[in-house]
Amino acid sequence: MTAPRHAGARLVVVSNRVALPRRTAAGGLASALQAALCERGGLWFGWSGKLAAETATQVHRLHDAKVDYATIDLSHADHDDFYTGFANGALWPMLHYRPDLVDYRRSHLHGYLRVNEAFADRLQRLIAPDDVIWVHDYHLIPLAAMLRRRGVKNRIGFFLHTPLPAAGLLIALPNHRELLETLASYDLIGVHTARDLRALEDYFLHETGATMRRDGRMRSANGRLFRSAAFPISIDTAGIAEAARTAGSNREIGQLRDSLEGRSLIIGVDRLDYSKGLPQRFQAYARLLERAPELHRRITFLQIAPPSRGAVLEYRQIRRELERSAGHINGKYAAPDWAPIRYINKSFPHKLLTGYYRTARVGLVTPLRDGMNLVAKEYVASQDPEDPGVLVLSRFAGAAQELTDALLVNPADTEEVADALQQALNMPLAERRQRWNAMMSVLRENDITVWCNAFLRALCR
Questions:
Q1: 167 near 207, Cβ under 8 Å?
Q2: How far apart, in whole angstroms, are the C-alpha atoms of residue 252 and residue 296?
Q3: Using an 8 Å Cβ cutoff, are 3 and 39 in contact?
Q4: What pLDDT, in 10s, does the model give residues 162-172?
Q5: How far is CA 40 from the centre of its chain?
Q6: 459 to each of 91, 215, 225, 227, 246, how far by Cα in Å?
Q7: If we measure between CA atoms, which residue out of 158, 126, 134 comes closest to residue 13?
Q8: Is-contact 92 116, C-beta < 8 A?
Q9: What is the C-alpha separation between 108 and 123, in angstroms, rounded?
Q10: How far apart are alpha carbons 132 and 13 in whole angstroms?
Q11: Is residue 193 within 8 Å of 398, Cβ to Cβ?
Q12: Does position 6 have pLDDT exceeding 80, yes or no?
C-alpha cells in the first residue's frame, strides 16, 4: 500500500479501540490502517479495552513492524458514562435515526467529555509537530477541539463511520451544539455518502452560523476553516475474494453444504443491534414462506447475529424477540427433516464467513439505517464468478449508493422484501452474472486501500 505523504509526516490513528498486533482478529479497516501506519511509520492510540481503578494512570506501549501502539485503561465509572452511557446510549441511537431510544443524561455527557479530555492529555504528549492525526468515529467527536485548546496545530482529520441524520433530527439531542460544533476543529471531516455530507453541511450552515466559501470549505462561527467530503469506505476486495475461493476446503463449509442437502441458502450476518432491522427481516422471511409454499423444503435462512452491548435493555429485548420469532417460524413451517430458519448468536472467523457467503444463493442485508454496511460488500466479493448469488440490500444502507445492481428494498416493507427474496431465488444465471459483475467492478475500483489513501490525500493537501 502506497500511502500519500505529507512532508514525511508520521500518521497517528486515534480510535476508541486499538487493533493490537497478534491479539485481535483484524478486519478490513484495521488491516488498512495498519498498512498505512506501516508505510509511513506511525502510532495507533486508544482505549485498551480494559477497566482499572482510575482512567489513564499510565500509557501501555507496544512496538511492532514500524508501528507504535499506545493504549490507556478506563475506570469503571468513566466506561459506564462515556461508552455505555453517552456514546452508545445517546449518540448511537440518534445517529441511527432512533431519537425514541436516546437515553440522555447530563452525567453521561460529562463522562464522555471527561474521557475525551483524558485522551487529549495523553495523546498530546505522544505526538510530534509534523504528525498527521486521523480520528475515528462518534466516540471521539470533540477530541480535536480539546487538542487545539492544548496548542496542537497538526493536521487532524475525522471520519464518522455511522450515518448522519438531517439537522432537524440532530437538534433533538440535548446540548447538540456543545458537541457537534467542535467538529469544526478538524481540518477534514469524512462521511460515507452524499446524503450524510448534505446533513453535515446543513447542520453547520443552519444551526451554527457557519458559511460556505467558494472553494468548498466552510468557515465556522468562530472563523475556523475546515472541509468535509464523502469517502465511501470499502473492503479488501481481492483478499476477500481469495479467502472465499479457498474456504471451500474448510471442514465447516463442507458441513454446511452437506446439511443443506441441495437447498438454496439465504444468509444474514449482523451484529445484534436494533439498527439492523432483524425483526422486520424475520417477518419478511415468514411472509415468503406463507405465500410461497412451493419454496418449503427448498430454502434455508441462516441468520448469524453475535450479541453486543448485552448490558443495554434494548439489546436484551431484541434478542428475546428474535428468539421468539425464529421459534415461531420453525414451529409453524418446519418438517422433521427441515428447519426453515437457523438463528445463531455467536461470531465466526472472518475467513469462515466468506465461505458461508459464497455458499449462499442470497445475501440478505436489510438494516433500517447503516453508515455503509461492509457485509453487503463482502457478500458480493465472496461470490463464485461462474455462479454468483444475489444481494438483497436495504436502500438505507450506505452501500446502496454504490451497489445499485443489488435488489434494493425498504426493510420496513415486508412484502417488498419477500418479493425481492422470491426474485433472487428465481433469478436466471445470466442476470445474476450481469448484476454481480457490475457490483464487483465497483468494489475493485474502490477497495479499502483506495478509501484510505483518498482520505489521507485530502487531509494532507
A1: yes
A2: 25
A3: yes
A4: 999 999 999 99
A5: 25
A6: 25, 15, 13, 9, 37
A7: 134
A8: no
A9: 22
A10: 9
A11: yes
A12: no
Burial of 247 (0-12, 13-18, 19+ CB in 10 A): buried
Task: Report the chain's C-alpha Rg in angstroms.
Answer: 23
pTM value is 0.94
Do the bridges between strand 362-365 and strand 188-191 make them parallel or antiparallel, or are there none, so unpaired? Answer: unpaired
pLDDT-based confidence at residue 3 (cuts at 50, 70, 90): very low
Q: What is the pLDDT of residues 52-85, one digit of tens each?
A: 999 999 999 999 988 999 999 999 999 999 999 9
Cβ neighbour number for residue 173 with a 10 Å cutoff: 21
Pairing assessment for the beta strands 341-344 and 407-409 based on DSSP bridges: unpaired
Q: CB under 8 Å to 62, separation ≥6 — which residues?
A: 20, 21, 68, 69, 70
- pLDDT score of 263: 98
Distances (CA, A) of 415 to 106, 286, 304, 420: 42, 10, 23, 9
Residue 202 CB-half CA count within 13 A: 14
Q: State the Cα–Cα distance between residues 396 and 115, nearest whole angstrom.
A: 32
437: its cell numbers: 459483475
CA 24 vs CA 17, 31, 33, 49, 281: distances in Å: 11, 11, 14, 11, 31
| Local structure of residue 354 (DSSP, 8 states) | H
- Cell representation of residue 324: 421468539
Query: Which residues, including other chains, have CB under 8 Å from residue 460's CB and lie 6 or more apart?
Result: 4, 5, 6, 9, 132, 155
Residue 352 corresponds to which cell in the numbers above? 469462515
Q: What is the pLDDT of residues 105-160, one digit of tens each?
A: 999 999 999 999 999 999 999 999 999 999 999 999 999 999 999 999 999 999 99
User: Grid coordinates standing for 288?
Assistant: 415468503
CB of 196 within 8 A of CB of 163? yes
Q: What 8-state DSSP symbol labels residue 187?
A: S
Residue with cell 478486519: 27
Torsion, CA 146, CA 147, CA 152, CA 158, rounded to 10: -110
Give 3-state DSSP helix, strand, coil % of the chain, rounded to 5: 50, 20, 35
State the sign of the Cα–Cα–Cα–Cα dihedral 167, 184, 69, 354: positive
The residues near 293 (Cβ < 8 Å, ≥ 6 apart) are: none
Question: What residues are labeled active site?
Answer: 161, 370
